[in-house]
Structures are given as structure tokens and as C-alpha cells.
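Why this split exists: single-chain examples teach little about how molecules sit against one another. For that reason, every record in the complexes split bundles all components of an assembly together and asks for one structure covering all of them. Below is a record exactly as it appears in the raw files.
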Amino acid sequence: MDTQDDAELDYLQSGPASTSGRSDAEQLKSALMNEKAAPEILQFETDLVNRIEATMDYQDEQIEMLKENDDQKLLVEIFMSELSRIRYLLRAYLRVRLQKCERHVMHILDNADIAARLSEREAQYARDFFVLFGSHMKAAAANHMPEAFSSLVRQAAAHPAKDMVPAPDLDRHVFARVLEDRGNVTVDEEGNVAEFNRGDLFVIRYRAVQQLVAEGAVELV
Amino acid sequence: MAYCRQQQWPCTPEEMYFNAKDELITIVPNFSVPTENATCICISGEWGPFQPNRECAVPLWLAHTLWKRKRCSIRPPSWMAVEHLDAVLGLERQDASAFQPLPSHYIEVAHFLFTSGTDGNLPQEVFGDELSRVKDLVELVQKARWNKIMAGLATLQGAITVKLNNLAAMEINAVRPFFLGSLNMFYTYQRMEEAAIGGGSQLGGSLAPSTQPLQQQPARQLRRAGGVR
């Protein structure tokens, strides 16, 4: 837990130097913004979520203990309002990830390394959703079409590749803020480079910063 | 409908306000907390020390909670001093290509300080006599920056990487759909052009139509989810 001094003049350095100096709440907010802006699903922050859930439970207990003491009302109110804020962030994070699961469920289940980014419960959700979605689509539409065209993943049975799977578009542009100096980085296929210094804000294709986002050197806004 | 909205606006303005409430602001409490160090240990950090008539820095949501219960008074942030805003406005007007450094949630914080606490007159308390001057200055700074953004958008010609430092969160959110959407379309057109050029040169090279095996191209190019999904 950090104590913030001289906050008035610190607005220019409002971002921390590295992720290790941030509080859990800030990390959660950053993870939420990344998930909202990125076209594909990112790695689930298991440790962070577990720590936050544990802290929230502890805070709940604190509130219960303090409630019995009548002259601590102010502290109770402070704790409760903060708890509701953190709870909102956590819920929003989990909701965004579930939405992405639903949108690209076939793509996720087909690729093992993307499926590895889900938490266990999300993976179970994706599998259940796929079964329900698949059976509904089959019953409503696919089974009424000629045999050769009734697949959910191929345009026609003659095509060996699964070309009807909705996949995330990694070439969408995003706003990216650089958290660590990374020098020159290639930004497109022609080999153009841009210099990534801490605090820079770029509008860039997601594919160019995909790796950096996964490493935590760049955050999406 | 929810999906479409998500694509256009990852962050609603209400969510921007929520994020802005984590910005720090100085308060002078009139109470003290009976804990070790007189601080308040919350999930997001240790705030305090809360001692009567001693300044401390807390997040905006905490300051608002305390102010509503009349437990503190709020000091204006240093960047909202008249001289500082004057200087920033001058620099914004001079330098047509760069944005001046301002807190990334300056619009939300300013809006909060000017409008909330309608039953207790927060703005008057915080700024005193300079209230209208500060309001004007913030609005002028906002307008100057917005004009710069519009001018920059007008010069967009292709799918390029753009560097814009010091853009505020609200400004990013306001241009997000148009900016990103137009860059995405530029990129799509660029790819279509390259594909067309590539296909044309193949046909020119041989008399027989190119015998590409079915595996390499789908029979129908499906409309990919650029803006819909």
C-alpha cells in the first residue's frame, strides 16, 4: 500500500514507473481498460483477481467489526464506498471478458494458446456457451439447409479450412500509452519504426503493440 | 444494440468520471482517525494522515464523501491556479502541433469541482472569488485543445501511426469512434488495393486464368466484422 505525498505537483507523473509500484486497485483498473480496448481476449490476471477478492473479504470483515462500534461511522462509510468501487471494477473486468468469450467462442476453443488465457470458470463458460449456441443455430437454421452447406464453421463442406469462424480483428487501431522506454519499435509491415518513450500516447494498429501489451510495457486507453 | 455500443464507446462518459474520481486532491480534514498513524488503510492505498487542520492528499471520491458529511474542506488543485491556466492557455495557442501537459482527467475534475455539491456550494468554497475566472480559463483551454484535435483529424490521409502526447482522457474518448473508425477504414482500403494490385499482376503474367487451389481463397469473401461485431 503506497502513501502519496506532494500529490499536487505529481500530476505530471500520475502514472507509476513500473507495474510493481502500483496498488492492486490501479492494476485492476489498468487491466479493465486494456480488456475494453483490445480486440482479442487477454491473459486472465489470476493472481491479481485472487488478491483483490481476498482483500475485499477482509474489508468486509473490518466493516462488520466496526459497525458494532458506533463512533466509527465515518470509517465504515469510507470503507463501504471504496468497497463498492472496487467491486464495480472487478465485475466490469469479468463482464468484458465474458462478452469477448461469447463473441469469439469458436475461435477461442479452436486455438489452445488463446484458450489458455481464460480462467477455469471462463473456459467452462465458453464450452457450455458453445454447446448451447451451436445447438440453437443448428436447430434454427443449419439443419434446414442442404447437407453440403449446413456446417457452422465452413462455407461449404468442400472447403477444408474453417473459414466462417468469427475471429477478432487484430488490425483495428487502438490508443496506446507507453509505460516503459522501449526505444525503436516496428509499427507496420513496411518496417517503419517509432520511438517508444515512457508517457507517449500513440494511435496504432493493435497487432503492432500486441506483444508489448502482453508484457505490460504498453497499456491501452 | 449493446454490442454496437461497446464497439463504438468502450468507455461511456460516466465511466470516465468514475476513473477520474481516483485523481488525488488536497483536503483539510476537521476530524482525526483513531488508528495508528491516523491513516485510513483502504484497498487502494493508505490515505491520510487525517488530523484536524493539516492538509493531506486523498482521491476525489474520498474527498467528496468527506465533504458531503462536512468533515473537510477541499483545496483547489495546483494546476487550476489562475496563473498556471493562463500560461497553459498561452502555450496551447502558440504551439499548434503539441498539447501541453495537463492532468489526464482535468476535464472531469474541473467539471466535478464546478458543478457538484449544489446544496453546499462547493465551487464557491473551493475557489472563492476566482471562480468565474477559473471557469473561463478552463473552458478556453478546452476549446483551444479541441480545435487542435479537429485540425489534426482533418489532415488524416491514410492508415498511419499517430503520436499525440498529453491528450486528456475525455478528449480521447470523444474522438475515439471517428478517429479509430476512419483509420480502420483507411487500412481496409489499403489492403484491398494491395490485394487488387497483386491479383492484377498475376493475370497479366499468364494466358490461362490463375489456377489457385480452392484452399487458398474462400468461395465468397465474407464481410469481416469491422464495425458490427
